UniProtKB/TrEMBL annotation:
Pfam families: Oxidored_molyb (PF00174). Residues 1-28 are annotated as: Disordered. The lineage of its organism: Bacteria, Bacillati, Actinomycetota, Actinomycetes, Micrococcales. It comes from the Bacteria. This is Oxidoreductase molybdopterin binding domain-containing protein. It comes from Microbacterium enclense. Residues 35-178 form the Oxidoreductase molybdopterin-binding domain.
Amino acid sequence: MSFITRGFGGRRRERDPRLPPGQSLVSDWPVLSAGPTPRVAPDAWEFAIGTENGVHRWDRAELQALGMEDIVVDIHCVTHWTKLDMPWRGVSLDRIFAEVQTDHRFAMVHSFGGYTTNLALDDLLGGKSWIAFEADGEPLSAEHGGPARLLVPHLYFWKSAKWVQGLITMPHDKPGFWEQNGYHPRGDPWREERYG
Ligand SMILES: Nc1nc2c(c(=O)[nH]1)N[C@H]1C(S)=C(S)[C@@H](COP(=O)(O)O)O[C@H]1N2
Ligand SMILES: [Mo]
């Protein structure tokens, strides 16, 4: 009679359709860092993009002057937690790449402290990624990547490099830190691209 008792028993909560397969909701914001937290002075922070045509640098004021946007997105960590409706503030990579010339289709993102992660430019451009300076209405804390981190919410959160320093474009894809250690080269949570 389970077809009857199931209906009258404890009301089963509907799975939120924004939750990718294998993920569970959290309301707090866990800290996950592969090493110690680098201390980066916000006023000394700069962002650089290196391409086959040279290096382009922005200090914080120059980068923010490209246009700060407020966005609300869901983030998905490969360790199975998802946080919905997170408010962030940052500069879209589209605005930054508008000042850069490259024929390359991939990039290696570099962080203070030595962390790296690889992304296709198709996953960075088209309104898909930001250099974020604030989350939850506050400047990013050092633990969460302050003064600035990459935010790529449509991919697993290891792609959202904390303490971001810049990126180097590449003609071909190449694995970054976690990708060399078994994680998937792309990391789409809707396809459960956890491991390579
Ligand atoms: N520089 C740097 N960025 C990083 C990491 C890291 O160890 N170093 N960890 C990644 C991983 S695996 C995750 S899940 C998220 C965690 O971000 P949070 O600590 O703000 O939740 O940052 C990503 N970005
Ligand atoms: Mo992670």
